[in-house]
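Quick one:
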Amino acid sequence: MNMVANNHLEGVNSKALTKARQKEGRLFFNLSLPSLITILIVVFIPVFWLSSLSFFDRAGDFSWENYDRIFQSQLYIKTFIVTLKISFITLFFCILLGYPLCYWLSQLPDRLAGILMVFVLLPFWTSILVRTYAWLVILQRNGIINDTLISIGWIDEPLQLAHNLTGSIIGMVHILLPFFILPLFASMRSIDTNFIRAAISLGSTPRGAFWRVFFKMSLPGFFAGTVLVFVLALGTYVTPALLGGGKIQMLAQRIDSTIMLYSNWGAASALGVVLLILAFATIWIFNRAFGIDKLFMR
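Output:
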């Protein structure tokens, strides 16, 4: 008898819980509806409209001409290669500089780590244009770096650090590095160091404990920062345009020149669609390769 009553009570509680969740879901949807409509109007509709232009030629007829031109032109193919090359190199240096820095910050006391993180966030308080021009001043032939190296006798002639690939990568690493540090630092600060001590006490070496425990637990922030930096690098415009000196042409610059010089909105829109596909493909590849969605499920 008690068992029947308990089963009936569990069924009633389950139905009540289901209704409560449905009510909560409807409430959440109603509260989110104004934001969803705003995002639809401000973001998605303009993107869809611009994307639709890529499927029409100059005469206004439906055509694949713009996409055919992209994949048949050596100039566009070279632009894609340069864009991917710079994005991967930028990501490599962001990981090389950002991971050790985040690890060091995560081991500091909260107060000191918070103070030092202010210096990481300082670049966000200055315009990208201003920061890029600052690097242009620093890296030019008569800049601080060349003058210092010449004065101490390390070099005889100024190094070509600006208006080339080197300058573009330096500027992009400086601008995108905080986007790698922020999610990774948040992930590292949430790791309980007792797990590492437990691994060492169970016979693991400090290096082994780091790779098997700490590194694996930091992967959600690591991959979040990696995807963020790479996607942002794909669409960077200002920094390579100024520090590249016209010698470096990435996709965003090619889109700009296609509109400004040739007024070809269809071709520029097709390039934008390809760039968007590259960004989504990057996220999909990382998710398939590393299971990013599973990393965040704890």
